[in-house]
């Protein structure tokens, strides 16, 4: 996938590890994506999800002690493609999220590019 294909993709990032989130944001910038919002807590994530305009959400599965699944359910109801970020096996996600893209941590350029590319294609198709 070329970087040009991702230009204009607006991404909401929910990541509670600040340095890891900064790496992800840098990769998104290199890919031509626009950071539509960034949240490190579930409270911030809910606010960003309600107020920001975005095409895709990258959601860390565990945000502090909180699960991101209730927010994921809400975003899916709205038709927002989700990329789950996790260091665990993709099979550890609840079955209702089996159609969502999984991005393995730690973040690497090629992995983010592939995951965002899949979600962006779904957003443009749907």
Automatic annotation (TrEMBL):
<dbReference type="Pfam" id="PF00072">
    <property type="entry name" value="Response_reg"/>
</dbReference>
<feature type="domain" description="Response regulatory">
    <location>
        <begin position="10"/>
        <end position="120"/>
    </location>
</feature>
<dbReference type="InterPro" id="IPR001789">
    <property type="entry name" value="Sig_transdc_resp-reg_receiver"/>
</dbReference>
<protein>
    <submittedName>
        <fullName>Response regulator</fullName>
    </submittedName>
</protein>
<dbReference type="InterPro" id="IPR011006">
    <property type="entry name" value="CheY-like_superfamily"/>
</dbReference>
<feature type="modified residue" description="4-aspartylphosphate">
    <location>
        <position position="60"/>
    </location>
</feature>
<keyword id="KW-0597">Phosphoprotein</keyword>
């Amino acid at each position: 996938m070329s970087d040009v294909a991702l230009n204009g993709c607006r991404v909401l990032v929910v990541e509670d590890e600040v340095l890891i989130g900064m790496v992800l944001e840098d990769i998104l910038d290199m890919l031509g994506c626009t950071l539509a919002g960034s949240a490190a807590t579930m409270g911030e994530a809910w606010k960003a999800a309600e107020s920001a305009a975005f095409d895709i959400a990258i959601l860390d599965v565990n945000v502090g002690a909180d699960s991101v699944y209730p927010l994921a359910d809400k975003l899916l109801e709205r038709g927002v493609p989700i990329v789950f970020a996790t260091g665990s096996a993709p099979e550890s996600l609840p079955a209702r999220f089996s159609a969502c893209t999984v991005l393995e941590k730690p973040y690497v350029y090629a992995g983010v590019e592939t995951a965002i590319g899949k979600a962006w294609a779904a957003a443009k198709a749907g």
